[in-house]
């Protein structure tokens, strides 16, 4: 019997039944999907485990970067232009490192968001983390803490300083992993493949790095990108004076290490790191975490914290320092023309 006493043909009855089944299906599917969402939202990840995994991912990626360079099998391509107009290089080292790093993390924690500078359509690497935690991390980080999986965003740079990599300026090359929780950087790993040097930090728990004992602010030595050292020169001299030493260098990871007290002798020393144009978060997140763990700061040029959730780009420039009055540095910076944000 059809509703309200209306007689239906056999075809009408069939249609009516199908409509009823559709309503039931959607109600049931809604219940199931809400339960799945509730289940996944309860997943947690231990930050000490994630730090150890990040170190292993950076090291494995670094092995590929080094191997490709030593075998001279770069297969160099240009994937576009940077905001400064320089060619943006892509090599087999970038891609091989991406596969190792991305899939090692994703296979271990498939429900965690992972953002990489590179992308490829190859099959999934089969590697899974062996859950070994290095002795220096065990010594410095007692237990770590669990955080909700859906609060985590991981940023990986499989090969920072690709331009320098193609030029054989290998001291600038790093692989990097950063873990942000609710947009705040809490784990940073910067690995130098050609020396085997790895810097790591877990904010609030420990690091294998430390600041230098002294920094000179009268005037500071400022490290900047090789790609736009000329453009930033006037900006820096207006802030700190015409005698300011400007140190051009490749790779955002290298520039952060230059602010610290690394054991790696090929890293030059700087007092402040400034970048005035567009930059991606996988370039800077790991360094931000390292500086934060050591009491330092990495902010926009206006002194605002950088949010490491959402879009990959930071258009507000950056200022990085440690063991100095960061807000005093911000106050010295000249007005910044928004047209430079690209």
Automatic annotation (TrEMBL):
Alphabetized, the UniProt keywords read:
Hydrolase, Magnesium, Membrane, Metal-binding, Transmembrane, Transmembrane helix
The EC designation for this entry is 3.1.3.25
| Gene3D superfamilies, per the entry | 3.40.190.80, Fructose-1,6-Bisphosphatase, subunit A, domain 1
Q: How does it sit in the membrane?
A: Single-pass membrane protein
Tell me the compartments it is located in: Membrane
Keyword Metal-binding applies: yes
Pathway membership of this protein? Polyol metabolism; myo-inositol biosynthesis; myo-inositol from D-glucose 6-phosphate: step 2/2
Coiled-coil ranges per the record? none
At the top level of its lineage, which domain of life is listed?
Eukaryota
The catalytic activity, as recorded, is: a myo-inositol phosphate + H2O = myo-inositol + phosphate
Q: Where is this region: Disordered?
A: 68-91
Q: Which GO terms describe its biological process?
A: phosphatidylinositol phosphate biosynthetic process
Q: Which terms does the record give in the GO molecular function aspect?
A: 3'-nucleotidase activity; inositol monophosphate phosphatase activity; metal ion binding
| Gene Ontology cellular component list | Golgi apparatus; membrane
A Pfam short name: Inositol_P
Q: Where is the composition biased (Basic and acidic residues)?
A: 68-87
Q: Which SUPFAM superfamilies does the UniProt entry name for this protein?
A: Carbohydrate phosphatase (SSF56655)
Enumerate the cofactors the protein uses.
Mg(2+)
Judged by the first EC level, this protein's enzyme class is hydrolase
Question: What residues does Mg(2+) bind to?
Answer: 117, 157, 159-160, 283
Q: Which family, according to the similarity comment?
A: Belongs to the inositol monophosphatase superfamily.
* Protein name, as recorded: inositol-phosphate phosphatase
Annotated organism of origin: Salvelinus namaycush (Lake trout)
Chain's gene name: bpnt2
């Amino acid at each position: 019997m059809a509703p309200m006493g209306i007689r239906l043909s056999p075809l009408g009855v069939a249609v009516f039944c199908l409509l009823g089944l559709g309503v039931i299906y959607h109600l049931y599917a809604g219940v199931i999907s809400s339960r799945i969402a509730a289940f996944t939202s309860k997943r947690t990840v231990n930050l000490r485990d994630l730090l150890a995994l990040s170190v292993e991912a950076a090291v494995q990626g670094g092995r590929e970067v080094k191997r490709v360079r030593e075998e001279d099998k770069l297969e160099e391509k240009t994937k576009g232009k940077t905001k400064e107009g320089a060619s943006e290089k892509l090599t087999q080292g970038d891609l091989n490192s991406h596969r190792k790093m991305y899939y090692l993390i994703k296979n271990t924690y498939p429900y965690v968001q992972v953002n990489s500078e590179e992308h490829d359509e190859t099959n999934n690497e089969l590697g899974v983390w062996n859950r070994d935690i290095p002795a220096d991390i065990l010594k410095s980080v007692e237990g770590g803490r669990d955080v909700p999986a859906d609060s985590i965003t991981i940023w990986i740079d499989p090969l920072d300083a690709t331009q320098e990599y193609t030029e054989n300026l290998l001291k600038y090359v790093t692989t990097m992993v950063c873990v942000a929780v609710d947009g705040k950087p809490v784990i940073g790993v910067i690995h130098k493949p050609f020396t085997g040097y790895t810097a790591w930090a877990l904010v609030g728990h420990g690091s294998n790095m430390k600041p230098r004992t002294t920094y000179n602010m009268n005037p500071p030595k400022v490290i900047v990108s090789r790609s736009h050292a000329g453009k930033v020169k006037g900006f820096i001299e207006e802030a700190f004076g015409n005698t300011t030493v400007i140190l051009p260098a490749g790779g955002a990871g290298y520039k952060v290490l230059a602010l610290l007290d690394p054991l790696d002798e090929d890293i030059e020393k700087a007092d402040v790191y400034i970048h005035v144009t567009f930059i991606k978060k996988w370039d800077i997140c790991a360094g931000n975490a390292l500086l934060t763990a050591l009491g330092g700061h990495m902010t926009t040029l206006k002194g605002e914290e950088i949010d490491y959730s959402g879009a990959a780009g930071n258009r507000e420039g950056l200022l990085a320092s440690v063991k100095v009055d960061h807000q005093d540095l911000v106050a010295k910076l000249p007005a910044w023309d928004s047209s430079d944000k690209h």
